Amino acid sequence: MTNIYQKVAFTAASAALSLGVFSLTNLSSVQAFDIFPSDARGLRFFPFEEPLLLDFLAVNKVVDSEDRSVFEYNISQLALNEFSSVKLRLEAGNIDEEGSLGFLDVFTFTGDGIVSPNDFFAGSFFTTFEASSSLNIVSIDITDLVISTLATGNPFLGVRLSTATSDRYTICGGSLFEILLSNCLLIDGDEDSELGPPRLSIAPPTPVHEPMSPLSLLAFGAFYLLFPKRNRDVGIN
Asked: Closest by alpha carbon to 98, among 133, 147, 143, 59?
């Protein structure tokens, strides 16, 4: 009978250990990935007229018109326990910088997956970032925003870029035109890859070593109580 109890304890301990290893392995198997916009368009507004959809991304504010850029992302594929951070990453440059810094404002809103003329006015202010004369990769942490959007059950997150300055800004969308004429695809030195269109970069969760469960403790305790030391050293026959 002792052998039967020993085998039962051994099986329970093995199962508990396997479950713990599986859980840790399963968590660490989640990889970093990017979410590209379901739609990304520039919008142009003339006084006393409806905003127009553009075929390129741009931001500027001049006397008789204003351009803004809008991106919409489908975040329904994300689960709250499957990422540690979300960053909006894009390439932006100030075409008209002449000694003074340029700034772009970021607005966010609940989207529907498609950029429409009315999105020219959409969003609540989120943050501001600097745009220099050279194209630079900008990374903005929007983790809390994504979490709150998912919590309300909204599948789409909208982002709008605009400016209060009088400069013109390039926002790279990764088109062939941009590649040939403005070097819009920059090389990311850290990842040695081209950035391309504005995207959400998803970082995987950090594995957490949780305390051993009561079931695991019980199984391992039974293993040590029921097995003589010599059997733990040489194995079970």
From this structure: 133
Report the residue count for the chain: 237
pLDDT above 70 (res 193): no
Assign 121 a pLDDT band (cuts: 50, 70, 90): very high
- b/e per residue 116-150 (b: at least 16 CB within 10 A): beebbebbeebeebebeeebbebebebeebbeebb
User: Residue 90 burial (CB < 10 Å; 0-12/13-18/19+)?
Assistant: buried
Q: Is the pLDDT of residue 65 over 70?
A: yes
Q: How wide is the angle at C-alpha 45 spanned by C-alphas 126 and 165, nearest 5°?
A: 50
Q: How many CB atoms lie within 10 A of CB 169?
A: 25
Banded model confidence at residue 167, pLDDT cuts 50, 70, 90:
confident
Token pair of 176 as six digits = 């062939």
